[in-house]
Amino acid sequence: MSEKQVVSRHGSLMVYQDLLVATLPLLAMAVFLYGPRPALLWLAAVVTANLCDQLVALLRHRPFDPLEFSNESFGAMLVLLLPASVSYYVVIVSVAVAVLVGKEAFGGLGCYPFHPTAVGYAVAAVSWPEQVFSFPQPGTWLPVVNAGSAGLMQSASYTLKNGGTPRIDTLNLMLGNYAGPMGATAVVILVACALLLAVRRRIQWDAALPFLAACFAIAWLFPRMGRVGLALPWVKAPVRLASVGYELCSGTILYTGIFMLSDPAILPRHRAARVAFGLTLGVVSMLYRYYGSYETGVCFAMILVGSFASAFDRLHLRWLDRKEALNQ
């Protein structure tokens, strides 16, 4: 391996270390809201991911790399998308699927076409929807072993999907003090994580910003609350603004833009193609939220749009070739 390849691989591995570290503030907030159970779920996810990595190394007769934390970061990101009341076996199975199917089945690090976390979450959502989409009320101290007896409720995303209006004030929305995924609700902590990753130059802004902008635009133009209907964009602006706040902050959209889109392996190589990728992902994610079977559809959109990441690059190169031909 050349010196350039070694430096590139080292930089790639550091991305996943930083993503793993960035999950810790969200985990700390979840422990504050629900007790020690989120920490045990996080630990189960990380250990499962590590064991899967060692198993693959054994089966492929290659040395195990203890400094390669991509699997652990995928597991940590996945468990924070789930409720604090989810069963341990759901975490273990979904993380194993994320690593073995979402990553290793396609060739390992950097070879997967869509984010392994999205694959694991999709399997959990389809297989155990009653657990994935039912959430405990923040402030409920959950039992460590069996949280099935805890009072569970639906999320703000479920309320929006069924035509209702969530009753969450701005302060609780910022602090994550409402029912939802244990790591994707606290906007203040998510912003802090984004600043950390930005300082480390891990966030792929050319994909994340178009993604968030597309989600913002659709939530503003076609709000699901207030019965705005087809009206001019400035009509009922306060209702539209509230809709944007709920759509971007109460589900997994902000979490996806910060964490999942920070993995360069799933993105096109060229900047213009990444912008198109982010815009497309935002539109498809909102379509899933509005019309999909599940209240949270970002991970399903990641799988669908991720399948066409290389196509965005090819279209960009064709456009450059045509532009060059016209200028000659």
Topology overview:
Elements: H1 3-34, H2 37-59, H3 70-79, H4 88-103, H5 116-127, H6 129-132, E1 135-136, E2 152-153, H7 156-161, H8 170-175, H9 187-199, H10 205-221, H11 237-249, H12 253-258, H13 271-291, H14 298-306, H15 309-327
Antiparallel strand pairs: 1-2
Helix pairs in contact: 1-2, 1-3, 1-9, 2-3, 2-4, 3-4, 3-5, 4-5, 5-14, 10-11, 10-13, 13-14, 13-15
Describe this structure in words.
The chain has helices at 3-34, 37-59, 70-79, 88-103, 116-127, 129-132, 156-161, 170-175, 187-199, 205-221, 237-249, 253-258, 271-291, 298-306, 309-327, and strands at 135-136, 152-153. The protein has 328 residues and is an all-alpha fold. It has a two-stranded antiparallel sheet. Helix 3 packs parallel to helix 5. The longest helix is centred in the first third of the chain and has 32 residues, at 3-34. The radius of gyration is 20 Å and the shape is globular. The N and C termini lie far apart (40 Å). The model is unreliable at 1-11 (pLDDT under 50).
Overview in brief:
With 328 residues, the protein is mainly α. The protein has 15 helices and two strands. The N and C termini lie far apart (40 Å).
Number of strands: 2
Q: Give helix and strand order, one letter per element, not per position.
A: HHHHHHEEHHHHHHHHH
Oligomer classification:
single chain
Tell me about the biggest sheet?
2 strands, antiparallel
Give me the number of helical elements.
15
- Unreliable residue stretches: 1-11
What is the end-to-end distance? 40 Å
Mean pLDDT: 85
Provide the β-strand percentage band: under 5%
Structural class, by secondary structure, is mainly alpha
Give, in spatial order, the strands making up the sheet with the most strands: 1-2
The radius of gyration computed from the alpha-carbon positions, rounded to a whole number of angstroms, is 20 Å
Bulk shape: globular
